[in-house]
Amino acid sequence: MKAGAEQVATTLGSALSAFMLPLYDAAREVDMKDVMVIGAGKIGGAIALMLADSGDYRVCVADRSAEQLAKLDAHPAVHSLALDIADHAALVAALRGRFAVLSAAPFHLTGRIAQAAREAGVHYLDLTEDVATTRKVEALAEGAGSAFIPQCGLAPGFISIVANDLAKRFEKLDSVRMRVGALPQYPSNALNYNLTWSTDGLINEYIEPCEAVVEGRLVTVPALEEREEFSLDGVTYEAFNTSGGLGTLAKSLEGRVRTMNYRTIRYPGHQRIIKALLEDLNLRNRRDVLKDLFEHALPATMQDVVVIFVTVCGWREGRYEQETYANKVYAGMVGGRRMSAIQITTASGIATVLDLLAEGRLPARGFVRQEEIALADVLANRFGRAYDPDAARMRKAG
Question: Which of 264, 174, 169, 249 has the alpha carbon at shortest distance from 215?
Fold first, then answer.
C-alpha cells in the first residue's frame, strides 16, 4: 500500500530541534505550572525533560525507586520525590495544590493515581492502553471539578486523534483501520524485535481482549489474531490484533462505521513466535516468567522507529473514497539528550494534551476523550509538531 502525499519518514534530529522549546529561564519561574509525573522510567523521564525545557512547567517526578529517580536527567525545573503510590494518603498530599498529575506508571497502578487525583482536585492525564483502567477513570471523572484525560500517548492517543480527523472528512463512513508499531531499526533476532517501552504494557496488549467494530457493532476479538501484511516505503510489515489501541474512539464511532479495528505493526514472523510462547508454552498464564524472558533475552534499543498508518474509507459527494495518514518517526536528540522514537512520540502526546489543557483549549472538568482533541491543534503545538509530516518535509527541504 502506498500512503500518498502524507507519507514521510520523520527524522527527529530536525523535527524536535524545530518544535522544542524555549530554554528554561529562571526568571519565568513565578508563572510556571506545578505538575507531577509519576514513574521515573524512560517515558516518565522524557516527559519531565520536555515539560521542564519549555520553561512553563515545574516538574516533580515521583517514584518509589531511589535508583530510578537517580537516573533522571538533571534540570533546574525538575526535582524528584521518593513516593510509594500504595500509600494513598501520602499520594493525595503530594498532589494537592498542583495543576496536574501525569501517570507514566504501569497500567495496573494507574487507577490508584486517578483516585488520588480526584480526591486532591487536580487534573489527571495518563498513557494507559488498558481498557478496564480507562473505564475506572471515566467513572471517577463523573462530577469531578477537574479534567480526567486518559490514553494521551501514541496508541491509544495520537492515533485516535488522527483517525477521528480523517473520519470527519466523510459524509458517511465505511471503515477505519488504525495501525501502529514501535520497532527496532536493525532487528537481529528471530522475533525481529527489541524492547522499546514497558514490558508489562507489551504483555498486556498481547493477551487481553481487543475491541473492534464489526458490521456496525462494538465487539470483542482475541489478541494476536487477524494477521495481515502490508508494505510501506518498500518495507514489508505484519499487523495483528492487540488490546487497547482503539481507546474510546470505538464507542464514539459505534453505529457510524461498518468496520473499525486497531492492529500492532511488527516485522514478519513476530506474531507466530509470540503465539507459540503464549499458547503452546502457556506463558499467558505465567506473565512473570514471560516478563523475565523478555527482559533478559531481548535487548533494549534506542535505535527505533515508530510507524503510524491510518486508513479511512467512506463516501463523499456520492463517491467511495479513501484517505490515509502515514508517518515514520525516528529516534533523535531532544534538549541535548538522545531519546528513542517511542519516548518522543509518547512524551510528545501527553505533553501536548497538557499544554492544550493549560491553554483552555480542552474542557477543564470531567472526562475528556482523545477524539475531542483537534488534530490541527496538536500539530500546531510546540510538542505536537514532532508528529507533523508536513512540517518535517518543509524543514528537510529548507
Answer: 174
Domain boundaries, the chain: 21-153+343-383, 158-332
Q: Which long-range contacts (CB under 8 A, 24 or more apart) does 83-90 make?
A: 83/38, 85/38, 85/109, 85/112, 85/113, 85/116, 86/112, 88/112, 88/115, 88/116
Contact 277, 290 (CB under 8 A): yes
CATH tag for 21-153+343-383 (out of 3.90.950.10, 3.40.50.720, 3.30.450.20, 3.40.50.2300): 3.40.50.720
- Helix boundaries (H) for 96-148: 107-120, 131-141
Per-residue pLDDT band for 332 (boundaries 50, 70, 90) equals confident
Q: Is 240 helix (H, G, I), strand (E, B) or coil?
A: strand
d(CA 117, CA 121): 6
Widest CA span of the chain, in angstroms? 61
Q: Are 10 and 330 in contact (CB under 8 A)?
A: yes
Question: If pLDDT is split at 50, 70 and 90, which confidence band does 132 have?
Answer: confident
SS3 label, residue 44? helix
Q: How confident is the model at residue 367 (pLDDT cuts 50, 70, 90)?
A: very high
